[in-house]
Amino acid sequence: MTAAAVVVGLTACSSPMHAGAAAVVGNERISTSELSADTRAYLAALKQNQLDEQALGVPATQVVLQRLVNVSISRQLMARYNVRVSETEIDAALKDPGQFESPQINLLANGVSPNDARDYGRVMVGLSKLQQQFGGESGQQKLSQEFASIKPVFNPRYGALNPQRSQQNPALFLDTGRFGKQTSDQAQQQQPQG
Fold first, then answer.
1. Splitting the chain (194 residues) into consecutive groups of 10 residues, what average pLDDT does each group show?
2. pTM of the model
3. Residue 163 is assigned to a structural domain of this protein
């Protein structure tokens, strides 16, 4: 599993929400206005590359919010462990097409608009360095634990992180209803089938 897979797979909730925040991540606040601006930039980048939001399978706001949270957690871990990333390392990371035909499509697949590419590249390189610092492949579990130690709290307007995404329920976030409680349909969907 790569450091990027850790970023996508781990996030949870546990601290109070701040007014005007889309999420609070450790000691960082992601404002609803930041989320809106980033989502607009992301949608514009999708359109510029002749890609449609429908192809994401989930609303762009969810993709962008998840990325903002993951970048925030990664940045805080890099600070905690004094991990530094050079501009040259960021440049190299941003040239990687990943599993796609181009680096730009790779970034868009991860919810990253061109405006946010350097920040995203910095944390991806930083997480890779952190995994090496923790022992390479064997450090994956430690990296996962450290990532999970910073627990984001999402504004109920966006719901709660969906811990069991599936083809039937691909959403990144579940609607928690007016007071942050899962709806009965969602609670039933998450019950193990026996």
1. 47 52 93 96 95 88 95 97 97 89 90 94 96 91 93 86 76 69 48 43
2. 0.79
3. no
